[in-house]
Amino acid sequence: MRDLVAGIVAVLLLLVAASLATTLRSYRRRRQRARDSERARGRVVIAELPTADELVLVSQDDQRFYYGERAIDKDLIVAVRVLINGSPIASSVSRRHAASTPLQPTSFEDRPEGIARDRWDVAVETAAGTTLIECGAIRERVSQELARAVFDAIKNDMEGRDRKI
Known about the structure:
By secondary structure, this protein is an alpha+beta fold.
C-alpha cells in the first residue's frame, strides 16, 4: 500500500514538473515573439519591464520611443527624470525646449507597497504631458538597472538632438 501511494505521488510530481516546463516554454516563446515583432517594425528593444501581468517592452525607432503600445515622439521630449519612490534623483532637460517651456519638478505620489521596497520609474516629459515608465520594485539592483537603461537611452537621444541645433 505504501509503495502504491509513493508511486502515485511520484507520478503527480512528474505531471506537475511537465506542466511547469510547458508553461515556461510557452512563456519564453511569447517573449521571443514580442521581441521579434519589435525588430520587424524596425525598433530596437531597450528594456523588458516587469508589470503585474507580463513584461512590457520599451523600444525605439528613429522617430519615437515606445512603452508597450504607447508612443512618445522624440522631437517633443522636454525632459527625462529617474524617480525613486516618486521623487526625482537624476534628470536631463532639453536645451531646445528649455526657454519655451517652464518646467515644474516631476514628482508622483508615493504608493506604499506592503513591504518596504524602492520603486524605480522614469518620467518622460513632453509638450503633450508626462509619461511615467514604471520600471518596477523587484530588487533594488534589477529595477535600478532597468530605469537607468531607459533613462540613458532617452537622455542620449535628447542630447544628440540638442547638438543638431
